[in-house]
Amino acid sequence: MPLKSPELYKLARQELGPLLIGLGFKRTPKASVASWCRPEGERWLVFWFQPSTDNDAYSPGYRFTVEFALADRPAVYTGRFRERLPRLLTGDEREELRQMANRTIARLPPPDMAFGNGLPPSMREHWLAGWKPRTTSYEPMEHVWFRHGDDADVQQLMLFFRRVLPSAIGRFLDAAASAAE
């Protein structure tokens, strides 16, 4: 069973909190989502977990992303410069992410065809595609969501995040500096 947002946030705080404290982050004030912030010069580096609005009983697992912003205040969903974590990954990291997503897809329960057969054919094809493994690598600028079908999938993603977050944060700050020039 996929984790609902509150459980996802709780697990993210538990699994990533110690690493992020070591990187100078603190929990973002007044945020209901799992989010962290730290001062970056005169601005704030903020990042948070953002669930998909399409997560429901009929979806092929649940999805979320992790979004970064360089903002004037320590708050989520703000900032002039924003980027999502998958776009900050290396090619090898994106490939690892694709393989994790495919393992999640392989373990998903089959789609509810009573629901699917009620969809128009073009929508049904799009919906069913969520149960098919990805055969090609993610492109660097592609919108990619982290997929999970159960707690084990989220635990794997947390291990992945602990490993990739420090360098992804550096890439985000480099990109923000380049955009400001």
Which terms summarize this structure?
alpha+beta; 181 residues; 5 helices
Notes on the protein architecture:
The chain is of the alpha+beta class and 181 residues long. It has one domain (5-180). 43% of the residues lie in helices and 19% in strands. Strands 1, 2, 3, 4, 5 and 6 form a six-stranded antiparallel β-sheet that branches. A hairpin with a 2-residue loop joins β2 and β3. α1 (5-22) packs across α5 (151-180) and α2 (91-107) runs antiparallel to α5 (151-180). The protein is globular, with a radius of gyration of 17 Å. 29% of the residues are buried. The mean pLDDT is 92.
Could you outline the blueprint of secondary structure elements for this entry?
Blueprint: H1 5-22, E1 26-27, E2 35-40, E3 43-51, E4 62-71, E5 81-84, H2 91-107, H3 113-116, H4 121-128, E6 146-148, H5 151-180
Antiparallel strand pairs: 1-2, 2-3, 3-4, 4-5, 4-6
- Stretches where pLDDT falls below 50 for ≥5 residues? none
The number of helical segments is 5
Number of strands: 6
Based on secondary structure, the structural category is alpha+beta
Q: Mind describing the biggest β-sheet?
A: 6 strands, antiparallel
Strand content: 15-25%
Tell me the number of structural domains.
1
Helix content: 40-55%
> What's the average pLDDT?
92
Shape: globular
Measured on Cα atoms, how large is the radius of gyration? 17 Å
Measured distance between first and last alpha carbons: 46 Å
Q: How would you spell out the order of helices and strands?
A: HEEEEEHHHEH
